[in-house]
Design brief:
Elements lengths: L1 H24 L3 E5 L18 H7 L4 E5 L2 E3 L3 E3 L9 E5 L5 E4 L9 E8 L2 E6 L1 E8 L5 E8 L3 E6 L2 E7 L5 E19 L2 E3 L9 E13 L2 E5 L4 E4 L13 E7 L2 E5 L14 E6 L2 E6 L2 E3 L3 E6 L6 E8 L2 E3 L4 E5 L8 E3 L2 E3 L2 E3 L11 E3 L3 E2 L2 E3 L2 E3 L5 E5 L4 E2 L2 E3 L2 E3 L7 E4 L2 E3 L2 H8 L4
Parallel strand pairs: 1-2, 2-5, 3-6, 4-7, 5-8, 6-9, 7-10, 8-11, 9-12, 10-13, 11-13, 12-14, 13-15, 14-16, 15-17, 15-18, 16-19, 17-20, 18-21, 19-22, 20-23, 21-24, 22-25, 23-26, 24-27, 24-28, 25-29, 26-30, 27-31, 28-32, 29-33, 30-34, 31-35, 32-36, 33-37, 34-38
Antiparallel strand pairs: 38-39
């Protein structure tokens, strides 16, 4: 009996040691990368790796990769997923300035990005400067950060994306591109700066395809030659065609300015780029954003016939000094979709239409149905147009308690179903509004 008892103690001790060892492998782990490191090292703080590629290969669930100051002429491909309780984070070390540069990267395929997340979950990218990736080819798209596939629970935070450029006349480039070809959930784009981009026909920050639940918050998007923030549906991006649209998200507290397609070879002399654009999204809140000196402040519609931006709330935004119009809803021609069941409220629209393009402060275009426009303050520019509606496909919209401020000595102008009114009372009668 004594021998058997001793053996049991040994077995139990061995089992306990194994359990402790196994637990320790799930403990949070830190990996370090330095321009002075070596991939033959162990990746510790005192013996860091040299490349992001090596760090990514070692970064399993629960790992934080700290990248030390310097310029890294390489791409970062995330190759493992984290979990809810053990995410994977790539971040700059302390407050170090970490640059991922595309200057020496050969752009030779359809999509080239400096950071790529494909079919991975629970990933955070934080604190990097991502810059200088250029293509001259129409067939190539360059991107600062690219998230695709069915990646979910992704956070992009405190990054600076700049000088991502297409020099082809009909080319494409993105600062941050998130394409839900599979089902994506919980995407967070927080407090990034995205600037100085040459975008061609593409966008500075874009979410496209099957994306459900997202937050775009406190970003600065500026000095780009096409759309600032774009939320897109119905372009055939998602494998599930019934879920091929961005939905259930917020766009809050962003600063967007100097966004214009004028002079962009893809658009010529058109002022058509929105600071914030919902193109076929659903159940989205746009609140407390500031947009100025762009072609269009905020736009919500769908570019695809019989498709809609729907259940959109545009509220408490400050929109001023934009070249064409402040807020635009509805398709720009009869071949497009429209805007329905949405609310535009408590916005300040101040002196938009600075180029005299007759877009006014609020532009209602094709296929605009059952929208509520209330309690906004509209102040005219020299064009004197408050509301511009040149289409007759305008049904069931309610206007109430809006405030119209005009320049002293000038009358304001309201255009409703392509008829012009210079008195608020006659406009109210024509639009059946309760102002």
């Amino acid at each position: 009996m004594k021998k058997i008892f001793t053996i049991l103690i040994i077995i139990m001790t061995a089992t306990t040691i194994f359990a402790v060892d196994q637990y320790e492998t799930n403990e949070p782990k830190s990996i370090y990368v330095s321009v002075d490191g070596n991939d033959a090292f162990d990746g510790s703080n005192t013996h860091p790796f040299r490349t992001l590629k090596k760090a990514a290969s070692e970064a399993k669930a629960g790992t934080t990769v700290y990248v030390k100051e310097g310029t890294y002429h390489e791409q970062l491909l995330i190759t493992h997923s984290g979990t809810k309780s053990n995410p994977i984070t790539f971040t700059n070390y302390k407050q170090d300035k970490v640059i991922l540069s595309g200057k020496n990267i050969n752009v030779n395929d359809d999509d080239t990005s400096l950071i790529t997340i494909r079919d991975q979950d629970h990933i955070t990218i934080r604190g990097f400067t991502i810059q200088d990736l250029t293509t001259n080819s129409t067939d190539e798209t360059v991107m600062g950060i690219y998230v695709t596939g069915s990646s979910s629970h992704i956070t992009l935070e405190n990054n600076h994306v700049q000088r991502i450029r297409t020099l082809a006349d009909d080319g494409n480039a993105h600062g941050i591109a998130i394409y839900g070809t599979g089902a994506m959930k919980n995407i967070r784009v927080i407090h990034n700066t995205v600037e100085k981009l040459i975008l061609g026909a593409s966008e500075a920050i874009v979410l496209n395809g099957n994306i459900d639940v997202f937050t775009i918050e406190r970003n600065t998007v500026r000095n780009n030659n096409n759309i600032g923030i774009d939320l897109i549906g119905y372009e055939g991006v998602a494998k599930d065609k019934n879920a091929d649209y961005v939905r259930n998200g917020t766009v809050v507290d962003n600063l967007v300015y100097n966004i214009s397609s004028y002079g962009n070879p893809a658009y010529g002399h058109e002022y058509s780029a929105a600071g914030i654009y919902i193109d076929g999204g659903k159940d989205i809140l746009l609140e407390n954003n500031t947009v100025y000196e762009s072609d269009i402040g905020i736009e919500a519609t769908s570019e695809h016939k019989k498709k809609y931006a729907e259940q959109i709330e545009i509220s408490n935004n400050r929109i001023y000094d934009n070249f064409y119009t402040g807020i635009s809803i509805g398709g720009y021609d009869h071949r497009r979709g429209g805007t329905k069941d949405s609310t535009i409220s408590h916005n300040i629209l101040y002196r938009n239409d600075t180029k005299g393009l007759n877009g006014g402060q609020l532009l209602l275009q094709h296929d605009v149905t059952n929208n509520l426009i209330e309690k906004n303050t509209l102040t005219t520019s020299p064009s004197r147009i408050f509301i511009a509606n040149y289409f007759t496909t305008n049904e069931g919209n309610v206007l109430k308690e809006n405030v119209y401020d005009k320049e002293e000595g000038n009358h304001g102008i309201w255009i409703w179903k392509n008829k012009e009114y210079t008195r608020l009372s006659t406009f109210k009668t024509a639009s059946h509004s309760d102002e």
